[in-house]
Amino acid sequence: MTAYSSLEEAAMGGKAKEWSEVAADEIALVSSMSDRVFDKPTRAAAIGKATLGSVRPTKLLSARLFEFGNAVVMTSQHQADSGQHLQITRVWVKRDGRWQETLSYQTTAPK
């Protein structure tokens, strides 16, 4: 959860360098509401310019974590500024003693 908080705080604060330290090089950010897949360079550039597009941080309502050795699957429910509820699934891996996000999939969810 510390890595997740760091990732979200960096994204919301426009801190691309700090976000990049928590995001794995192969990260893919996908949303059912967009036909774009964000990779690390694209997302970091957007964070640096504060033009987050359709993959932006949202209010965390709840989260569950499932640990598999050096990997964690995180499922979480969020609420967008619009009030829309979102389901986000993330995959984290532990490398060199630190957690990095490798995948984020976001979709709308009923309330």
Radius of gyration: 13 Å
Number of helices, counting only DSSP H or I runs of 4 residues or more: 3
Largest sheet: 6 strands, mixed
Q: Which residues sit in consecutive blocks of at least 5 with pLDDT less than 50?
A: none
Structural class: alpha+beta
Oligomer: single chain
Strand content: over 45%
> If strands are numbered along the chain, what order do they take across the biggest sheet?
2-1-6-5-4-3
Short description:
The chain has 111 residues and is α+β, with helices and mostly antiparallel strands.
Describe this structure as you would to a colleague.
The protein is of the alpha+beta class and 111 residues long. 25% of the residues lie in helices and 48% in strands. It has three helices and six strands. It has helices spanning 2-12, 16-22, 40-49, and strands at residues 23-31, 37-38, 59-68, 71-79, 85-95, 98-109. The chain has a six-stranded mixed sheet with strand order 2-1-6-5-4-3. Strand 4 and strand 5 (85-95) form a beta hairpin. The longest helix is centred in the first third of the chain and has 11 residues, at 2-12.
